[in-house]
Fold this sequence. Notes:
mainly alpha
Amino acid sequence: MKSSTQGMLYALTAFLIWGVAPLYFKYIGFVPADEIVTHRIIWSCVFLVALVWWTKSGKEFFAVLTTPRFLIQLTITAILIAGNWLLFIWAINHDHMLESSLGYFINPLLNILLGMLFLGETLRRWQWIAVALAVSGVILQIIMLGTFPWIALTLASSFAFYGLLRKKMPVDALTGLLVETLVLTPVAFVYLVFFAHSATSNLFANSLSLDLWLFAAGIITTVPLLCFTAGAKRLRLSTIGFFQYLGPSLMFIFAITIYNEPIVWQKWLTFALIWFALVIFSWDGLRHAK
């Protein structure tokens, strides 16, 4: 199978899982967001250790651990992705799924700009137009509603920079993600044991079903991230953005159909401009590929 085809399959899998993940976080929404993040980190680390052992890739893991440059870079990406997780879960469980979806609609266009600034990827005329339309949509929301879409822009920028930094590192997806979670696990464990005092913070006091749902956070976190980083290694950063439409589209549908989040006409206008921008970007990408 060609590398680009593999990259597309990885990307499709990642964004499909991310699209339905809000249903999972809504289901356990009575658990505080910070606790869910600690479970994502801890059980992801356990799951990844098992995968490294199973795939016999410990040599690569220890090579990264003994390279200070990689450790510093992966610590930075770990902080970025942990912050992204925390804000995303908080937003989903506080009825901001629409704004979360807006952030991940903006992200592909931000990927274009980062690819131009840091990877030498050139922007064509229609790509510039797409970016300008997206920026216009955000500015119109600020002017007409008087609200700054900080959730959307923070989610978009943190994940875009995470993807950029991981793409530039010569570290495979499994090893890199294990080091990231390993860096975060001590902090997560200390917080869960000594600082979290909610009704669900003690695993021994929870029902077995709830604990299993919390353990599943490791799988729902690890699998799409592994697929995403593997896809990013095989595709242009701007191409990765094409597949990201799937995730926020599902989030948008869930928000207005299942959870009945209100959406005023000004927000419809913002979404419309960004959707139009993505249509232009997709059309230009397909035309250029042909």
